[in-house]
Structure formats: C-alpha cells, structure tokens
Amino acid sequence: MIQSLLIANRGEIACRIIRTAREMGIRTVAVYSDADAKALHVREADEAVHIGPSPARESYLVGEKIIAAAKATGAEAIHPGYGFLSENAEFAQSVADAGLVWVGPKPSSITAMGLKDAAKKLMAEAGVPVTPGYMGENQDPAFLAEQAGQIGYPVLIKAVAGGGGKGMRKVDAAADFVDALASCQREAAASFGNDHVLIEKYILTPRHIEVQVFGDTHGNVVHLFERDCSLQRRHQKVIEEAPAPGMDEATRAELCAAAVRAAKAVDYVGAGTIEFIADASEGLRADRIWFMEMNTRLQVEHPVTEEITGVDLVEWQLRVASGEPIPLTQDELAINGWAMEARLYAEDPAKGFLPSIGTLELFQLPEHLGRIDTGVYEGAEVSPFYDPMIAKVIAYGEDREEARELLSEMLEDSAIWPVKTNSAFLIAALDHPDFVSGTVDTGLIGRDGDSMTAEPMPTETALTNAAMAMVPRSLQSGFRLNAPDVRTAPFLLDGKRVDVTLHGPGAEEPAPAMLVAESGAVWQLSPWRAAGSASGGASDGAILSPMPGKIIAVDVAAGDTVTKGQKLLTLEAMKMEHSLTAPFDGVVAELNATAGAQVQVEALLAKIEAAE
C-alpha cells in the first residue's frame, strides 16, 4: 500500500483526498501557490510545499515543480484530483518516469480519450454508439460551416481537447456559426493549448447521462451505475444526481455494458466516467443514447455515486494504484437510495453569474443534515485566480423526492457573507416543476433561467426582526407615546434603501448593523444614511472591470455607435469569459481597453455617452 501521497491539486478535491488518505493511514503532502498559502488543504495535509505564484500556469500547471515537491518530501505517489494536470498524459508519464506512482489511468488511456474526435472513432470501433457529426482534420472555417449545414442546425462546436464545459458553443443558425467558431477556438487555445474542434448534431431534448467505471491492473472493469447531470448552465453542471430519473433496468443494463466496453477498449485503470447524451423526447431508450466523451479522472460529482453504492472511490483509487484488485465484483455492487449534489459557487446570479471574491467573514453550512465537501473555511479568501466553486452540498434520501427536499433544506440553511453565492438560484432550480418531475434536459436553465436568477429579497418578518435589534428601546418607546406601536423607517439593505416595518420594544444595546440570513442568502441591514452619488456605475455609462482579469477581445472603437446590450469587450477571469455590454444606446466616448491587457477590479475600461 502507498505510504505517502502528494496531492497535485487544491480546494475541495485536495481536502477530499486528504480525508480518505488519513483514514487509510497514508501521509499526505499538499502543494500551494501564493494565493493558497492559508488554504484549508494546506492546513489539513501532513506537509505542504510552496510551488509558485498565484496564476495556475505558474504553479499548479507546472509538472516539474510538482514532481520536485514529491521527491523532496519523500512522497511515493501523486494524486492529480480533477482539473489542472489530471488528464495530461505527458505529466502522467513524467510521474512514472520519475519513479513515482501515478494515481490514475495509464498515459496511453488518457491519450486515447483525450481528443474527442479520436475517442469517438475508437468508441465506434468498440461497438459503442456515437452521435452524428464531423470529426475530421480540416479546420477551415468555411469547410466547418459547410459541414454544420450538412449535419443540420442546431449544432454543437466542441474543442477536441476540451472539458469542464470549456470550448463548447451551441449554434442555432448558419449566420452565427463563424463568430461562435472563433470564440470557441479562442477559448480552447487559451484553456487547452489546442484550438482543434469537432461538430456534433445538437440534440433538442438532451439529457446528460454518465456512467462511473473503474478498472484495475488485473484486467477487471466494473461500473458503479449512472448519474444524471442534465441540469447545466453554459455546458457546466449545476446539480447532479444518482441514479438517473426514468431509467429502467433494461436501459441501464445496456448503457452500463456499453460503458464497460468503452473502458476495456482503452485498457482502463482507475476511476473514469463515460459520458453519454440521450435524446429524451420519448423517455430514456437505449437506442437514443450516444457516447459523448470519457473523463479519465475522478469527477466533481463522484460523491453521489459514493452515496448510493457505499463505496469510497478515492480509497479504490489508492488501492488500485498500489496494485490491488478492485475491492468489489460487479455482482456485489448495487444501488441503494438516491443522492443529489449541488455545486455552490462564489458568484452572483443576479449579475450574470459574475464571480464574487473576498473574505468569507461568515461561512456556515449545515453539515449535520448531509455531506459537505469544501476547501474553504470561515475567514478564508476567495481569490480571482481559480474556479469559484467553494463547496459541494450532497444530500441522500431513500427516494428522489426525499433527496431533493433535503438538498433544498441544506441550501436554505446555508449562510455565507459578504461573498455572494448561487444558493438561492440552486433552490429555485430544485423547485422548478421540470426538475421536481425528473424531466430536466440540458436546456432548462437556458429557457427558464430568468425565473431562477431574480435577485432574492428577505421577507418582511426577517427585516423587521433585524431592524428591531438596531433600534434603541428608548427611541421606539418614544414613538409609542403618540402613535401606534407600528411604523416604518428607512434602512440600507446591502447599500440600497428599503423601508422596514418597526414594532416591538427595541433593543437595550442596539447593534450597529445586522446580517439577515434567509433561504440561502445573506444581506447586511444597516442604519439609513443619505447616500452619496456613486461614480463609475453602468448607469452613468462607465464600464468598469467587475474583477481582476485579462482583456481577450475588444469589439468596438472610440467613436463607435452602440446599442443597449451590444458586446463591447470580453474579459477572462476565474477560468471563464465575461462579456461586458453597453448599458444603453449611445457612443463610445472613451476606450481604455486593449486585447491582452491585464486589468484590476473597477478599472475604467470604457465610457458610453447616451444617444441624443
């Protein structure tokens, strides 16, 4: 058995791996960048090594530094987690060449499944059904546009080296193809160093079904059933569950058998996921489910599989990497109950899901109700350098409705401040009629997202209770001398005026401000004061950078006439592209943005003057 393990990752997955390793008596080594010097995974590991500056390309993506850290600390093995170098075959080979154990599949398996076009060809040869599309070498935009027309719109452009929702664009009409292709290729080149794409037919009622597979060095491959990850936003998973609603035993058997064939076709070792797309227009049917891609690593959503099977997949990874066979046979694996996972992000859905950064002055999650996987703690910093996911909230129930209700309750009982989160959005998604009925397809949020992203407001009762803790008892009593024991007064709720009903005795020692926590959201209520005029907001035409980042495209020039909602420029931050748009019709009076420039938060990038 491996005795010492370096985790080549950060955040919640690093903490997750450390937890299992500790239970197995394995010494752990963490690596960290400047931004993560005080991170939770650094605190929890037995030893930690600094590997460079905050940007991932200078730290977590530098394989030489990670291997050097392993050798310096006497670590025998390296676990890559997910993301970063987890699906980098060259790094996996370098680990083996250095005499270390790679906790993952063979480099050849990663290579075989790493490019989507080659993987689909290989799967077709192995008898695994694949979606119709173009997977050739010709990358000429005009030729690709012609292929898209032959496939028939809508189509999906996908980076062959992509993953995690990056490098993917849905195109509904031929007129939009060229712009979507350029954007997809640009993101693919920046994220993966490869702008090669393939084109697939876009399924109009698609569901994302995936199968957890596991192989060992003794020739055994098993599946641990399916997960449904259909609730997505911009191709990124939001809520995952296991098993898949509406899956009958016959379809499950065919789907899982296809997944095992796929794994055996690449001589797979370790944890992997075979992702399928299903046309659910007539329910889940085996003849309408096609291979999409394989993720040659542990998935973000692996906890839901663990919850319904009772298996610790990280423990299995470490045992198989140590040369042991898979602990259970296929006949010993069974589905028990239902599990759901919500990805809790530091982002503001009411502002276009812009990432939110800062200190977690309040960070409380209901661990007594279910499973919480996180890599942060109260007082930790959410930085702009990495993915904004701060926790995974996992609920288990005897059936789907019990799991859904518990997950909603866990999110409602969360309290995080001043960093904004998507908790209220997740609750709204869980309550959507299509999700409740189990008929979600991947386009649900695109169609009905506005109903889920409305800025939440606390109830009148919650505001009153908070306000009364700020009102001196003597002041409130004075009002009761000449008026009823009810009145309204202005306060500031996160800096915006709100009129609050006051009643009751007031407080002996009034608080200077109060936090209002309700339904997964937190606001600060403070005394009313005359607000000074703010400058630099979009209302006066100033376009400010919402966070530190890099300008990757500028679509206008000074003097251009623009219309409300027109894209002005694109900012890359926290591994995502963010389009900044014109707040109203007008003229670009000032432009301070150039492609390739690094900008700080609230930097003035452009100024729009209203049209006369």
UniProtKB/TrEMBL annotation:
Domain ATP-grasp stretches: 120-322
A UniProt-annotated Pfam family: Biotin_carb_N
Keyword Transferase: no
Keywords: ATP-binding, Biotin, Ligase, Nucleotide-binding
Superkingdom of the organism of origin: Bacteria
Cofactor: biotin
Listed name of the protein: Acetyl/propionyl/methylcrotonyl-CoA carboxylase subunit alpha
